[in-house]
Write a structure and sequence with these properties.
By secondary structure, the protein is α/β, with parallel strands linked by helices. It has helices spanning about 10-30, 45-60, 75-85, 105-110, 110-115, 150-160, 175-195, 210-220, 240-245, 245-255, and strands at about 5-10, 30-40, 65-75, 90-95, 120-125, 135-140, 165-170, 200-205, 225-230, 260. It has a 10-stranded mixed sheet with strand order 3-2-1-4-5-10-9-6-7-8, sandwiched between helices.
Length: about 270
């Protein structure tokens, strides 16, 4: 697997991101690139010394992989996504505070922009998640948008990596029969993909009463999910337009790690299923 890139800013959220990145990278046998985006006037010496001290403290957790770091200067979202592209990364991991701390964290303020710009999947980790629990349950919400199935490949990769079960969540956002049939077809499509990949899954259909974010989180919390996989773009409804984009709502409200996948024109990994 290609390198795992992690955004770091000395916040507790980004420290959790490093811990989770190490776990993932060990399983993938991928090296880790830690990225600190500094301001122009910041002295590099103390930054490097503290990062090296922290890296030494987790060196015993590395299983045949390397943990390296780089200092960049500029806008955090721009620099993180540039580094991910330069490294041809498999994953970009970003930690953020809870709602009260997002305004104080450079990475927190730039999470949305990072997701929008990233050429690779982005894993957003909140500091208030219970990291003592194994990653066992992955929720994959599916709506009527054209790109919704594209998250299946990344969800399957994480399920294989951790031996997790995927929960396919069909989101009925309309009473129109044609829309509901599209959702059914997309769920069936992903079921066939998971069957061929021999990944265990559970399928559930629910009526969306408020918006897709609330419905997804209610279900994810009920099944004690460890990861939610979403697209950076999702089906738009009247309620979601008033409340903000789906990805932004999910990042704001979810205490569960969120894996975001950017849509592409071709279902490269799922086209044959």
């Amino acid at each position: 697997m290609n390198r795992v890139v992690v955004g770091f800013d000395f916040s507790s959220g980004s420290a959790y991101a490093v811990d989770l990145a190490i776990d993932i990278a060990n399983r993938w046998q991928s090296d880790i690139r830690l990225v600190y985006v500094k301001e122009k006037k910041e002295d590099e010496g103390p930054i490097r010394a503290e990062i090296e001290r922290r890296n030494a403290g987790v060196a015993h957790l590395l299983k045949g992989i390397k943990l390296e770091y780089v200092l960049r200067e500029g806008n955090p979202a721009d620099e993180l996504t540039r580094q991910a592209k330069e490294d041809d990364a498999a994953l970009l991991v970003v930690g953020t505070h809870g709602m009260s701390g997002m305004k104080k964290s450079l990475l927190g303020r730039n999470s949305y922009k990072t997701i929008e710009q990233s050429p690779v999947p982005v894993l957003i980790v909140r500091e208030d998640f219970n990291f003592n629990k194994q990653l066992e349950t992955i929720v994959v919400p599916l709506d009527s948008s054209d790109d919704t199935r594209q998250k299946a490949a990344q969800a399957a990769l994480f399920a294989k990596t951790f031996g997790a079960t995927i929960h396919l969540l069909g989101l009925y956002t309309s009473s129109v029969s044609d829309v509901r049939r599209i959702i059914n077809n997309y769920v069936n499509f992903v079921e066939r993909y998971l069957d061929k990949a021999e990944i265990p899954y559970v399928t559930k259909y629910i009526e969306v009463e408020k918006n897709v974010t609330t419905s997804t989180l209610d279900y994810a919390n009920a099944v004690k999910a460890d990861l939610i996989t979403i697209m950076t773009e999702q089906e738009s409804t009247l309620t979601s337009l008033f409340l903000g984009t789906y990805a932004q709502q999910m990042i704001n409200e979810s205490t569960i790690p969120v894996l975001t996948v950017r849509p592409t024109r071709v279902l490269a990994d799922t086209a044959n299923y």
